[in-house]
Write a structure and sequence with these properties.
Blueprint: H1 9-25, H2 30-37, H3 41-53, E1 57-58, E2 66-67, H4 69-92, H5 97-107, H6 113-128, H7 133-145, H8 153-174, E3 178-180, E4 189-195, H9 200-207, E5 215-221, E6 227-232, E7 235-240, H10 241-244, E8 247-251
Antiparallel strand pairs: 1-2, 3-8, 4-5, 4-8, 5-6, 6-7
Helix pairs in contact: 1-2, 1-4, 2-3, 4-5, 4-6
Amino acid sequence: MPKSKRLSANMEDYLETIYHIVSDKKAARAKDIAVRMGVNSASVTGALRLLAEKGHINYAPYDVITLTPAGETLARDIVRRHEILKDFFTKVLDVDEQEAEDNACKMEHAVSPVIIDRLVRFVEFVQICPRGGEEWIGGFRQFCERDDALSGCENAISRCLDDLKKRQKQFQEARRETITLESLESGQVARLVRVKGKGSIVDKLKKLDITPGSIIELEDVETSGDRINIKVRGYHLSFRKDDFSKIELEVIPPT
């Protein structure tokens, strides 16, 4: 988005809040926004008028508020930036959940698309590379907490080489088998191999630049079992049961 047309950080916060409320309730009301953001009604009214003038929301006094297509696209991008920063803070830097949440809120407005893409790829790299995952993050935690942070480096390098050989073997075995979305368990990650067929699901993933090689994390399966919620490249996506079998995945061996 050209710099002159960018929203201020405050307006992006309003748009992000509206996006979350609309996702939960299908539409938002001014009082919902005021409560969630902890601001007064006059501030909300001024923000809604500005967002409506810029074409991001459908708004009329005393009526429900919905996002325009342009507003939804922008809001989704803001939410994605927030999620990617939070993931980096928690999964890579081992920062406390609330601390990560607070700082993601502050930084999401300034970070560039290039940095966002690199953060996504780095988190994916940590999830799949040898010496990655929980063990690697645990080592970083010790590095932060201990005075003798450099002790044990030789052992770490040795373990890294051993892990590399082990992981290479695991990947070779895992590549022999592909699974579909319903085979994942909550919290499990896998690499996207392909999306079969045609239709809205293919177009949706392509539009979000979710391509073979992207790392998919299963968040949860809805109680009815008819929808699966995943996280991929910072997006929270929900798929219907009819689409489960169209998404072919490659298992990522545990680190």
